[in-house]
């Protein structure tokens, strides 16, 4: 079996449709190809764990879902991907795994598709057990043994006696699960199991280094412990000697598969006399007869043992530091390659100095139009806004209407608006149109003074003055009526005109006095009334400053 299967492609396409880049990458890292997960996919998933907007539970659940596959390749690569993220990813991932009640349930996994499936299924069961134990260890001590600070002031060297006696057995359980992988050099026959072994090898070095420092701290405190503590400490030390034998066998396999000898630490066995000294001290605390030993000989034995174990720890630390340095150099080389590639891409692009210096208008149109702007406020002679309410009418000629909006005149009448409002002015006066109304706030004691309005100008720049001028022209108030116009009393409802004037009835229509009309108007003046004809509106009659229908 080689290459991506159709199932792999379909699954990746499904995640592409749903927009989940993380799930898609997990599927690409755990394909049916008989090779380890690709580095680019692992690097992307590690980067995702460092992003706060990435859903860590979703990432973990996707990996757990992939382990339910029937193919040993997919399941094995899912475990490898999980292990890789646990080692190199953000600690949030391990914290989430430690918080779960259940992890990998692969104790009965078996791929019956072929002979290789049978063989690899055994290592999958062992590998999943180690990953479960690694997460449980984090849950118990709240830190990862492979990432703790080491040295004379490290975590394991500065731990007190009570906590030390509880912590070392946790390391022992994790170390046992790792060594139970129990693979031989001739069984590392494909890229999948080789990738798993390399991760286990790196974990074994770091884990044993922490284990070794815990034992050094235990030995330094042993002769000051109580009887129960000494008995427990002696049992821990005996198990440590057994695991030293197993870890040495594990390192031999690593050497056989081609790992550089400089990357494999040296193990220095503690002198056998140390075990005798520890047993005799416990026997003396139990009241048994023991050989007489001086404090100086006991101290010498302890010093030699601690020195041997310290050398082992230094060897493991050097290997770990060498690995970190190699990883750093690899990252720097990758960044350098990316930088060079980027520079090549920039050098291939044409110079954009000429295009950036030019104006976007000049590049698209060639030149900027110098045509004068349209005057939106030109004043026509017979067009404007006519605002009316039930108690106020005023006429404003500020805005110009488009020529097409003016209805054609069928009568050909020449309307004189000045005569309509009783303000006769020169025909050629250039100030007869006025400007835009500008409302002003008048004080309560300030009255309307029509006399201040310029003669011959119907509407001024001030709203209050324009209204006052209009009211004065209509003869409303205490002023003298102009042109001998006689107004009816406000309470008179009968509409009468001159002796020869007959009112004309207009068709009934719906009338909204609060509406605003903008249209062309025509005015016809009689002796005491003014009749306005507005396009689209029934005829209106101005009488006593009020607006009414005929």
UniProtKB/TrEMBL annotation:
GO terms for biological process: clathrin coat assembly; clathrin-dependent endocytosis; synaptic vesicle budding from presynaptic endocytic zone membrane. PROSITE patterns: ENTH. Gene3D superfamilies: 1.25.40.90, ANTH domain. The keyword Cell membrane applies. Pfam families: ANTH. Its main location: membrane. It is found in: Cell membrane; Cytoplasmic vesicle, Clathrin-coated vesicle; Golgi apparatus; Membrane, Clathrin-coated pit. Residues 442-455 have a biased composition (Polar residues). InterPro entries: ANTH_dom, ANTH_dom_sf, AP180-like, ENTH, ENTH_VHS. Keywords: Acetylation, Cell membrane, Coated pit, Cytoplasmic vesicle, Endocytosis, Golgi apparatus, Isopeptide bond, Membrane, Nucleus, Phosphoprotein, Ubl conjugation. GO terms for cellular component: clathrin-coated pit; clathrin-coated vesicle; extrinsic component of presynaptic endocytic zone membrane; Golgi apparatus; nucleus; synaptic vesicle. Signal peptide: none annotated. SUPFAM superfamilies: ENTH/VHS domain, GAT-like domain. Residues 349-365 have a biased composition (Low complexity). Residues 343-366, 428-457 are annotated as: Disordered. Residues 14-145 form the ENTH domain. GO terms for molecular function: 1-phosphatidylinositol binding; clathrin heavy chain binding; phosphatidylinositol-4,5-bisphosphate binding; SNARE binding. Binds to clathrin; involves primarily the C-terminal sequences, but the full-length protein is required for full binding capacity. Binds phosphatidylinositol 4,5- bisphosphate. Interacts with PIMREG; this interaction may change the subcellular location into the nucleus. Interacts with AP2A1 (via its alpha-appendage domain). Interacts (via N-terminus) with VAMP2; VAMP3; VAMP7 and VAMP8 (Via N-terminus). Interacts with LC3/MAP1LC3A. Cytoplasmic adapter protein that plays a critical role in clathrin-mediated endocytosis which is important in processes such as internalization of cell receptors, synaptic transmission or removal of apoptotic cells. Recruits AP-2 and attaches clathrin triskelions to the cytoplasmic side of plasma membrane leading to clathrin-coated vesicles (CCVs) assembly. Furthermore, regulates clathrin-coated vesicle size and maturation by directly sensing and driving membrane curvature. Belongs to the PICALM/SNAP91 family. This is Phosphatidylinositol-binding clathrin assembly protein. It comes from Sinocyclocheilus rhinocerous. The gene is picalma.
């Amino acid at each position: 079996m080689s290459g991506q299967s159709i199932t792999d492609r379909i699954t990746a396409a499904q995640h592409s449709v749903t927009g989940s880049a993380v799930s898609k990458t997990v599927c690409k890292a755990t394909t049916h190809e008989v090779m380890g997960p690709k580095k680019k996919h692992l690097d992307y998933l590690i980067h995702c764990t460092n992003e706060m907007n990435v859903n860590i539970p979703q990432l973990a659940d996707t990996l757990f879902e992939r382990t339910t596959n029937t193919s040993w390749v997919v399941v094995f690569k899912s475990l490898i991907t999980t292990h890789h993220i646990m080692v190199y990813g953000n600690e949030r991932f391990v914290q989430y795994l430690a918080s779960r009640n259940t992890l990998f349930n692969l104790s009965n996994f078996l791929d019956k598709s072929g002979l290789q499936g049978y063989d690899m299924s055994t290592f999958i069961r062992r590998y999943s057990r180690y990953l479960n134990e690694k997460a449980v260890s984090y849950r118990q001590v709240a830190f990862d043994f492979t990432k703790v600070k080491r040295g004379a002031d490290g975590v394991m060297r500065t731990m007190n006696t009570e906590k030390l006696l509880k912590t070392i057995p946790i390391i022992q359980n994790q170390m046992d699960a790792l060594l139970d992988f129990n693979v031989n050099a001739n069984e590392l026959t494909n890229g999948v199991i080789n990738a798993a072994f390399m991760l286990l090898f790196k974990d074994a070095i770091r884990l044993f280094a922490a284990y070794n420092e815990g034992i050094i701290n235990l030995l330094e405190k042993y002769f000051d412990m109580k009887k129960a503590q000494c008995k427990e400490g002696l049992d821990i030390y005996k198990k440590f000697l057994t695991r030293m034998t197993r870890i040495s066998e594990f390192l031999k396999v690593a050497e056989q598969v081609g790992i550089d000898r400089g990357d494999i630490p040296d193990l220095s066995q503690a002198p056998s006399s140390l075990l005798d000294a520890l047993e005799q001290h416990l026997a003396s605390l139990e009241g048994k007869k023991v050989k007489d030993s001086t404090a100086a000989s006991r101290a010498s034995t302890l010093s030699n043992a601690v020195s041997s174990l310290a050398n082992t720890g230094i060897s493991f630390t050097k290997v770990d530091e060498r690995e970190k340095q190699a990883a750093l150099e690899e990252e720097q080389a990758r960044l350098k390659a990316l930088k060079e590639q980027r520079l090549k891409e920039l050098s291939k692009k044409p110079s954009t100095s000429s295009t950036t210096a030019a104006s976007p208008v000049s590049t698209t149109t060639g030149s900027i139009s110098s045509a004068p702007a349209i005057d939106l406020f030109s004043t026509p002679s017979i067009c404007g806004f006519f605002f009316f309410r039930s108690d106020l009418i005023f006429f404003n000629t500020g805005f110009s209407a488009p020529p097409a909006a003016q209805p054609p005149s069928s009568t050909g009448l020449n309307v004189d608006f000045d005569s309509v409002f009783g303000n006769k002015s020169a025909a050629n006066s250039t100030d007869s149109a006025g400007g835009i109304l500008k409302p002003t706030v008048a004080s309560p004691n300030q009255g309307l003074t029509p006399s201040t309005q310029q003669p011959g100008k119907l509407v001024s720049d001030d709203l209050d003055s324009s209204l006052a001028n209009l009211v004065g022209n209509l003869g409303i108030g205490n002023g003298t009526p102009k042109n001998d116009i006689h107004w009816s009393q406000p309470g008179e409802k009968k509409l009468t005109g001159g002796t020869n004037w007959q009112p004309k009835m207009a068709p009934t229509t719906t009338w909204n006095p609060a509406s605003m009309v903008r249209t062309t108007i025509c005015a016809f003046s009689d002796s005491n009334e003014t009749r306005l004809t507005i396009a689209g509106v029934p005829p209106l009659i101005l009488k006593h400053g009020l607006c009414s229908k005929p």
